[in-house]
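Bench notes, afternoon.
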Amino acid sequence: MTSGDTNGTTAEPLLAARDLVKVHGRTEALRGASVDLRAGEILAVTGASGSGKSTLLHCLAGIVRPDAGSVTYRGERLHKLPEKRLSALRRTDFGVVFQFGQLIPELTALDNVALPLMLAGTDRAEARARAGEWLERFGVRGQGESRPGEMSGGQAQRVALARALVTGPKAVFADEPTGALDSLASEQAMTALTHTARETGTAVLLVTHDAQVAAYADREVQLRDGAVTPLGVAA
């Protein structure tokens, strides 16, 4: 693979952002940022704190609409879609993982993971059965009946990763997924995420400030002054 934001292939990217601009108050978080995410690849987005990494992720995931520029997913321009269609994509094609997991505290781990399936219309019994399989993949099947407050941070984050992947998404957006974890829990979570993503062919956009986490990616780009600077292949 060559350095930069292209790898020499002519295949269309799964997700393409072009010249994104996003302003928060008086702060211009993105200033013409462009990036591609290809099917099956793990892409790390790094940069200093406040560089706009999370804003870029939110635009790519259809959570936030850019003020200018375009985000295209499999021929659809996300920023032009009605909210109903965006919500459908987030339920089926996209999975999102945040730094603190954002599990629903009143639900067990099993029901947290089953919830996206049930929202998509899957029968509860089937959804819970599939959720159990995903908890097994991430090594936390034994926590199935535990609530988030009863689990360690690393366990809860692996539950959050299982929830993001349970619907079989085409892309997962992970925003500092190990930022609240110690080094061992971080390694366990990233090993589980990358192994599962490669096994299922899921593309992952990984926002991180940690070079050790970025090293799990196939490719790394850096946000600097609101624009994307290619760094080539991660180690």
